[in-house]
Amino acid sequence: MGFIITSYGLMKEIKGGMIYGIVFVTMISWFRGTSVTYFPNIPLGENNYKYFKKVVDFHLIKSTAGAVSFNNFNTSEVWVALATLFYVDVLATTGTMHTMAKIGGFGNDQGGFEGEYLAYLVDAGSTVVGSTLGVSSIATYVESSAGMREGGRTGLTAVIIGLYFFISLFFIPLFSSVPPWALGPSLVMVGVNHPG
């Protein structure tokens, strides 16, 4: 259903068509006792449902912020992980930024785009700062294409999305209860409409 709603919204060029599909599937998945519920009658489902009912919650990152240690840094596992994350992050960032530049019409004749060097610096700096705060790897997100698909073409789009992300920090019980199958159709449609 989410795929159909999202497809129909894109076909009819309805603003926010992707969001409607996500919201519909999420709302259906929040009902308990159905075959598609996000809160099945198992211990994990019960725990998720208890957390969901809080609606508003905020966790400090005091247990992970600044918890940097270089003990046992010189082991092969650490270097393999570091090389893997570096390789994956560089490839993901490159693919995402060049795809977004192509979608937005910002590409140049040489295959690059204006501000490319600065964009890599921002991504790398964010990764370093995020690591010292103890969060997972920071990466340029391909979901930007959804904003561009809806008409966003300036940095103001990113600022508004950033503000929404900040507000969402306080509603983690709700947003962490959005099932993966609600997001999948939108990401598939982004890939179908804009092959990288």
Automatic annotation (TrEMBL):
Instruction: Look up and give the organism this protein is from.
Output: Juglans regia (English walnut)
- Output the Pfam families linked to this UniProt entry: Xan_ur_permease
Q: Would you tell me the protein name for this molecule? A: Adenine/guanine permease AZG2-like
User: Which keywords fit this entry according to its UniProt record?
Assistant: Membrane, Transmembrane, Transmembrane helix, Transport
Coiled-coil portions = none
GO CC terms of this entry: membrane
Record's keyword annotation contains Membrane:
yes
Organism lineage string: Eukaryota, Viridiplantae, Streptophyta, Embryophyta, Tracheophyta
Q: Where are the transmembrane segments?
A: 18-39, 117-142, 154-175
Source organism, top-level taxon: Eukaryota
> Does the keyword field hold Membrane?
yes
Q: Name one GO biological process term.
A: purine nucleobase transmembrane transport
Topological category with respect to the lipid bilayer: Multi-pass membrane protein
Q: What are the protein's GO molecular function terms?
A: nucleobase transmembrane transporter activity
Subcellular location(s): the record lists: Membrane
Family assignment?
Belongs to the nucleobase:cation symporter-2 (NCS2) (TC 2.A.40) family. Azg-like subfamily.
